[in-house]
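Sharing a chain and its predicted structure for anyone who wants a worked example. Both blocks are below, sequence first, tokens second.
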Amino acid sequence: MGKPKILKKGYTDRVSRLEFSDRHYRGAQFDTDMYYVGIANSILQIMKSSLKGYPRLTPSLLRELSVTLALYLEDIVSGTGIWEAFLSLCRKKYGKEMPFYDTGDESFIREFPSLQAVRFLLWYTLNNRNTDTMLNPRNPALEALAMRLLPILGEAYDNAPDTPGRPEIVSEERRGVPVFYQVRDICHWLCSACYLTAAQDLFAISDEALDFFEELFKGAEPSQIAYAANAYIPFNLRVGPLGITPQEWLAEIVSLYPEKGEIPFLKSLTELKSLPYRTYRFDKIEGKTATISDTDGNTYQLSAFTLPGEKFAEGVTEGSSALCSLVYFDGVWNINGMALQTLPPDFYNESKETSDKIREEESRKYCDLMKKLDNKPLGAAADFDELRSVLEFPEKDAADIPSDILNGKDILFFVNPDSNISLLANYAESVKFPGNKLYNKETAATDGLALVFDPDLTSKEMRDYILSNNLIPDAALRSAVSPQEGHRLFQDNLPFFADYALRDSYAHPFFR
């Protein structure tokens, strides 16, 4: 037995080849890896010397920053299209190539390492790991660090080798794998490993989904439950700084840099959409296709393509009920992952009857509430007593009210379209709308941020209403330059921040 190797001091703080290649599709290793690992470690050494005295910047976080910048370099050298897709989508969504930074000067070249890109990637990576506060994207320390790192990336770009790049989507005849599954697999990579779009904690997201599927498919094998979650998440998780689904990222990447054989699949990519689990009825079955209806009366042309043997389950007949998630791909709807296909007709009928009753009751309650509130869904109350008088609900209903609302002050409320009322204590001062006498400009400057950056704080409808009606006009980021600069930065980039806050969230798998 040979002598044990003695690791050199500081070795464990260096980026390894495995750490870098793990971020490639399926962890692929290339002959070019060590070049980019060398760049990552050069970046790491500069950051270690520049960022002393910042306890939150752990060795693992510094390595993550270094790997991210090296992968960005590899991306623009190889034409992978990830960064270019980000710029293109920003132009389409916000009318500019990047949030926060001016890209109109001569120093910004999309295909070459830029100061704007380095600043953004530093901000994005650091901010994702520090969820307690929102780091200002124009932080002077970040700019200074980016200026130190840019020459390394610029010099490395001139000598960088070309990597094989992202996986190409090819015909089933060439690869032996249907295009649908190739796309889903690449979307999983975008969720799990891609430097710009990977979720921060995919394990936690998967565990939450697994809990749902274990309840839905009681008695199923663990491998089947895992398959259900792994099939659902890649088409429904919002990822990356734009908070969009992986298939939207992929469609943009392929549209910008299509490989020769991918052009026939571009239409299917751009049209791909996913629906959560809900109840359907088989109206008509013709071999490997069927017409199905949901409980709202919408009809879909369903293919058996993704099912075992490309056949509907034995026992499926016209009138049978099903519980499944659908994905629209290549001009037809397909069942995604696991499904319950042979439920009795009464399952659909009872689901529809229940859904219709709930919808009717919700509509009635909503109309009654809106009539009381002069068709204004958003309101404010100084305390619970005022809230109860405004909404005119009986004192006996107070038993269902959370204690923070019963004892709270400055209560913001919103009537959702399903007639449920969202209640937020201590936020009435933060939202500016006609008739809100509780509004406080100074409080709104800081507390208004939470209504954007914490989507779980409100219902989706409440958040959309506040944002679309520009009801947090005084919200501002902290700024080392001036309060005015922090206000201008936040307000100018509010649509981006609203999308950014949705990253790593997904549509609940079940639609009632």
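Comments welcome. Residues 1-11 have pLDDT under 50 and may be disordered.
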